[in-house]
Inverse folding.
């Protein structure tokens, strides 16, 4: 007997119809799925085709640009344009906001098409993360700088593992797997497990003595209770936390022996990294805070490439670290 699975598109169509929504979001999601599959193709063949190395230029942040960064960015923008549904895009790869279809578009999208650069030369998992907000259909245009709580959806592909996770506003976080026909199938609702047995902590352990004293103290008091896992790509690390429970954190760096290397504002990007995983986490019953213990989804971005510290995962752990951070 053949086992037939529900496809992502069928799932989303049902969802939109159930909530009396238009098909515009479906068309945008179709574009993102096509982009992810296209990027995955380049990534899988990257070592053989010489695409896993440096592009030879440096971005506005002074970081070396990878060939795959450029490929992933170009692919994503192509599909966003073709969808006709995007007003402006904010990409990790460009300093400026990209006008995609300012007149006819309906959504703002914030994305990082290839996150977790240290994994790229090895062909190991990376993330394609995105958050989506809707144009203000009534009243004056209110710009593209939206807090995570105002996103309508946020998701991530873990490339090249063939997994896709999508958080839908007030409708849960869902995981899909790619099948032999390259469709994402089998919607599985993600709920952070309450059972602490499987919980994991995930952070760059080599940074631990650069964190604030209170965060170091929290780690010392809690680390032995949980397993420790760190891949070095947010999407991959968060993928595990969402399934097993626990906490991923990238705290502010404030005690580096070389003060120039401190990152008091954190490392991760608010709009297309932290808010994206925070949104999925909230829809799965979890939460996320920044270094001040403020909920990530409540933080109003002042600029589109704003950085933040991030603590995301199971609610009891986020409440606990939140109290410490606010204290
Ligand atoms: P990367 O800089 O390697 O692209 O986006 C930032 C990010 O990756 C996250 O995906 C990841 O969780 C983190 O930074 C890894 O940083 P460290 O190398 O400092 O651990």
């Amino acid at each position: 007997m053949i086992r037939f699975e529900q496809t992502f598109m069928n799932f989303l169509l049902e969802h939109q119809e159930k909530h009396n929504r238009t098909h515009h979001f479906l068309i945008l999601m179709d574009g993102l799925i096509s982009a992810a599959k296209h990027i995955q193709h380049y990534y899988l063949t990257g070592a053989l085709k010489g695409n896993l190395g440096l592009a030879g230029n440096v971005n506005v942040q002074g970081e070396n640009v990878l060939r795959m960064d450029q490929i992933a960015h170009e692919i994503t923008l192509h599909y966003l344009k073709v969808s006709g549904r995007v007003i402006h895009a904010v990409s990790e790869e460009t300093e400026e906001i990209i006008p995609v279809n300012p007149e006819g578009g309906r959504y703002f999208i914030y994305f990082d098409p290839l996150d977790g650069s240290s994994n790229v030369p090895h062909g190991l998992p990376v993330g394609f993360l995105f958050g989506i907000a809707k144009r203000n259909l009534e009243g004056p245009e209110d710009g593209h700088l939206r807090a995570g709580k105002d996103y309508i959806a946020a998701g991530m592909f873990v490339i090249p593992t063939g997994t896709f996770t999508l958080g839908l506003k007030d409708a849960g976080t869902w995981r899909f797997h790619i099948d032999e026909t390259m469709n994402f199938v089998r919607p599985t609702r993600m709920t952070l497990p309450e059972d602490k047995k499987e919980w994991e902590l995930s952070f760059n352990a080599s940074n631990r003595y650069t964190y604030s004293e209170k965060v170091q103290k929290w780690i010392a008091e809690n680390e032995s209770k949980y397993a420790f896992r760190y891949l070095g790509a947010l999407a991959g690390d968060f993928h595990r936390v969402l399934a097993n429970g626990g906490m991923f954190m990238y705290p502010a760096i404030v005690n580096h022996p070389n003060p120039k290397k401190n990152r008091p504002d954190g490392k991760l990007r608010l709009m297309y990294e932290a808010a994206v995983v925070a949104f999925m986490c909230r829809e799965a019953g979890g939460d996320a805070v920044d270094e001040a213990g403020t909920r990530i989804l409540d933080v109003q971005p002042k600029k589109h490439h704003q950085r933040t510290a991030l603590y995301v995962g199971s609610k009891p752990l986020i409440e606990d670290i939140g109290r410490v951070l606010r204290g």
Q: What stands out?
A: The pocket of 2,6-di-O-phosphono-beta-D-fructofuranose is lined by residues 115-118, 204, 232-234, 237, 267-268, 273 (CB under 6 Å).
